[in-house]
């Protein structure tokens, strides 16, 4: 296992949709170990594989001490109720902006044994599930911001680069 370096915007791996995991092999097992170790650090809620430079559909989470992972996740349900809280990202360091997300999310995927997995939650867990699935689709949270807020965020981001 290894603590992996986090890729930051404008790294193109963050803007490229990730490929599904076709075969669970030693490489995928190692990836999951690295995702779990890398997310297990103060202030980290979630980590997608492309954030450590691997373009495969997998992510880990660390919500209130609950650490886990899912392979080939897809959002299958979002609640109607919305939350509008501050959101940040390891790949966009130092920027926090209000981001509207569903207050409930359910994701389905598989585990390392190929068994079906369902992960669901409200509040921070729902935000994390949506945020990480966005990463796997080649999006960062800035893409979800309201128009005016997104402009301000992009100006701030460009000033930091």
TrEMBL record:
GO MF terms held by the record: metal ion binding; peptide deformylase activity
Catalytic activity: N-terminal N-formyl-L-methionyl-[peptide] + H2O = N-terminal L-methionyl-[peptide] + formate
The enzyme's E.C. designation: 3.5.1.88
Highest taxon, organism lineage: Bacteria
GO biological process: translation
InterPro entries: Peptide_deformylase, Peptide_deformylase_sf
Active site: 132
Signal peptide: none
Entry annotated with the keyword Transport: no
Keywords: Hydrolase, Iron, Metal-binding, Protein biosynthesis
Cofactor: Fe(2+)
CDD domains associated with the record: Pep_deformylase (cd00487)
Record note on cofactor: Binds 1 Fe(2+) ion.
Keyword set includes Magnesium: no
Top class in the EC scheme: hydrolase
Positions of Fe cation binding: 89, 131, 135
Function: Removes the formyl group from the N-terminal Met of newly synthesized proteins. Requires at least a dipeptide for an efficient rate of reaction. N-terminal L-methionine is a prerequisite for activity but the enzyme has broad specificity at other positions.
The family this protein is said to belong to: Belongs to the polypeptide deformylase family.
Protein name (record): Peptide deformylase
Lineage of the organism: Bacteria, Bacillati, Actinomycetota, Actinomycetes, Micrococcales
Gene symbol of the encoding locus: def2
């Amino acid at each position: 296992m290894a603590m992996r370096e986090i890729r930051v915007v404008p790294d193109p791996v963050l803007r490229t949709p990730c490929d599904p995991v076709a075969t669970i092999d030693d490489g995928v097992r190692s990836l999951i170990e690295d995702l779990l170790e890398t997310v297990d650090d103060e202030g980290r809620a979630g980590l997608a594989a492309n954030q450590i430079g691997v373009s495969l559909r997998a992510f880990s989470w660390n919500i209130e001490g609950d650490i886990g992972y899912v392979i080939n996740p897809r959002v299958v349900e979002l609640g109607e109720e919305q939350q509008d809280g501050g959101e940040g990202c390891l790949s966009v360091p130092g920027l926090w902006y209000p981001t509207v997300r569903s207050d409930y999310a359910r994701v389905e995927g598989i585990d390392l044994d190929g068994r079906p997995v369902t992960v669901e939650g409200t509040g921070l867990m729902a935000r994390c599930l949506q945020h990480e699935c966005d990463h796997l689709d080649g999006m960062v949270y800035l893409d979800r911001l309201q128009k005016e807020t997104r402009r301000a965020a992009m100006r701030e981001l460009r000033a930091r680069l």
